[in-house]
Amino acid sequence: MAVVKPQLVCPAGSLRALTLAVEAGADAVYLGLKDATNARNFAGLNFDDAQVAEGVRFAHARGAEVLMALNTYADARDPLPWRRAVDRAARLGADALIVADSGVLAYARDHHPQLRLHLSVQASATSYEAIEYYRERYGIQRAVLPRVLTLQQVEQVIRHTSVPLEVFGFGSLCVMVEGRCALSSYATGQSPNTAGVCSPPSAVRWHETAEGVEARLNGVLIDRYGPAEPRGYPTLCKGRFDVAGTPADYALEEPTSLNTLALLPQLIEAGVAAIKIEGRQRSPSYVQGVTQVWRAAIDSAWADAQGSGRYSVQPQWSNELGRWAEGQQHTLGAYDRPWR
Asked: Which positions does UniProt annotate for [4Fe-4S] cluster binding (predicted)?
């Protein structure tokens, strides 16, 4: 795989976030429709047709691409909403679809062969054999790798596939093996992989109690906050629980954000085609601030790779990303996992 300057792919949960991402230097933005066809199906987020069209016009006028996430799994009883979403994306001028469901991939391949297909992280394709299968069968032109591979494993996948690969550079983490999380479904009966939302708002309740503010998901106590504690959106994987009589603590995962600025030169050398920023559910200010940092970092690392500069992680970059990191903590996640 040839070394290329990675494309910076940024989240857009709203038209405001899209415009700020493009102005801050995103090469591409990814967005979803206001329904269960995308994995961030939260009230107040996402785009209707008019907003997609306006976003596409704005991005294309500035040389940026718009990628549409249709990355939930279609309801086998009624796949029409997913097929119509593919038709809408093509009609509205999206540059590519981000898809996990093989039935949706097949529909897009057969009905809109001009539309580029990216394999979503929700497909959980962690090996070159899996990625090659999707290339041969559906003609995917990019794959987003799950956040469970070490840097050496990413390099190994790149060496054995002709499909350009996209990796996550920054954003929230969770314990799921991408596309296979069942925690929210266990508590609410709604899966993020089909309904598009982890911890559906209709199941979330906040209660003032003498012991603090409780966050519950369909009745399951997820966390209890003290008066001065910041309150995050309640998800089971990041709840604090009493386990075997120990004081309540993060039993599954402590809130923290992936941050791969320190690995950027190695990712470029490995041949990564795109760096993805997580966070369609985050604010436009988050999108603007994180995009600005990663635009500067990729430009600097690419100049270094071309022999015309020297890359190092700048303190102001870390300070800015620290403002937006979950729990104000960073990690390299699985990239530097010591065990196999």
From this structure: 174, 181, 198, 237
Q: pLDDT digits over 291-308, tens only? A: 999 999 999 999 999 999
Q: Would you list which residues are annotated within the binding site? A: 174, 181, 198, 237
Task: Write out the residue range of the structural domain in which residue 121 sits.
Answer: 7-173+256-335
Token pair of 12, please? Answer: 């857009």
179 assigned to some structural domain: no
Check whether residue 239 and residue 316 sit in a common domain: no
CB 197 within 8 Å of CB 40: yes
Would 183 be classed as within a structural domain?
no
DSSP class of 203: G
Q: Are 313 and 261 in contact (CB under 8 A)?
A: yes
Is residue 2 in a domain? no
Asked if 86 and 151 sit in the same domain, the reply is yes
Report pLDDT digits (tens) over 227-241: 888 887 888 888 888
The pTM (predicted TM-score) of the whole model is 0.92
The string over 147-181, giving b where at least 16 C-beta atoms fall within 10 Å of a residue's C-beta and e elsewhere, is bebbbebbbebbeebebbbbbbbbbbbbebebbeb
Q: Give the annotated binding-site residues for [4Fe-4S] cluster.
A: 174, 181, 198, 237
What are the tens digits of pLDDT across the range 268-289?
999 999 999 999 999 999 999 9
| Number of folded domains that form the chain | 2
pLDDT tens digits, 199-213: 888 899 999 999 899
Choose the final residue of a domain: 202, 217, 250: 250
Angle at 267 between CA 264 and CA 269, to 5 degrees: 110
- The answer to whether 122 and 87 have CB atoms below 8 angstroms apart is no
φ, ψ at 105 (rounded to 5°): -60, -45
